[in-house]
Design goal:
Helix content is about 95%, strand content about 0%. Helix 1 crosses helix 2. The longest helix is centred in the middle third of the chain and has 75 residues. The protein is rod-shaped, with a radius of gyration of 58 Å. The N and C termini lie far apart (about 155 Å).
Length: about 230
């Protein structure tokens, strides 16, 4: 008994794993789930169609029997009238009994025919309903799969956009900017060092001294020329 319970639980566990695996597969491939559902509906439709055909065949058979019994009733009625008209009472008695039996059978068949017609109508309505559900399911499959493909394309594009990160390029550009700034700073530093160098300052001083001396000599020449011009006028 314990072994039976163990194997039963093991079977249930395995069935659970298989169900979960199938569910995961259907999530990844919804077209499979829709196809399975549609195939299941088609199988149901096929079985229902066969059952409906059997119900309709029974209805037609009962209708045929009703027509046969009505014809028989008409025939017996005419024969009974003929027997009564010709005073053949013995035949009339037999025909009257036969007519009563046919009427009883006909009443029963009429009830069966009505029920068979109702059953056939219900079966046809059910068949049309399943057919409509199959059509709706196919439309839903096409619509949902189109939405799924669109969503997957959007996700793929978003992933590609996220993968095209410019952070590394920006960091590289920042390093280039820092290098340029450092180079400019080094160049400025060299100029500043040269400006503060003693030899450079002395050279500048000599240049300034030469300029001052030349200016003084120019002023002296102008003064002498002015004096000479004034002496001539006197």
């Amino acid at each position: 008994m314990a072994n039976v319970n163990f194997f039963a639980r093991l079977g249930n566990l395995w069935s659970g794993f298989v169900s979960l695996w199938i569910a995961d597969v259907e999530k990844e491939h919804p077209e499979i789930a829709y196809e399975n559902a549609i195939n299941g509906m088609v199988t149901k439709y096929t079985r229902l169609k066969s059952a409906t055909a059997a119900i309709i065949r029974r209805r037609d058979e009962i209708d045929g029997r009703v027509n046969t019994e009505r014809k028989a009733l008409d025939q017996v009625t005419r024969e009974l009238e003929t027997a009564l008209a010709t005073n053949q009472d013995d035949l009339a008695l037999v025909l009257l009994q036969k007519k009563s039996a046919i009427e009883a059978d006909l009443n029963g068949l009429v009830g069966e025919a009505e029920q068979a017609k109702s059953d056939a109508d219900d079966a046809k309505n059910a068949l049309l309903a399943v057919q409509g559900e199959i059509g709706k399911l196919k439309d839903e499959r096409d619509r949902m799969l189109a939405k799924m493909q669109s969503a997957q394309a959007r996700i793929q594009i978003q992933s590609q956009l996220e993968g095209l990160s410019v952070e590394a390029d920006v960091q590289a550009l920042d390093r280039v900017r820092e290098h340029i700034k450092t180079t400019i700073a080094e160049a400025n530093l060299g100029k500043e060092l040269r400006d503060t160098d003693l030899d450079v300052r002395l050279d500048k001083l000599r240049q300034q001294t030469g300029t001052v001396t030349a200016r003084a000599q120019l002023d002296e020449l102008k003064r002498q020329r002015a004096q000479a011009a004034a002496g001539k006028q006197m």
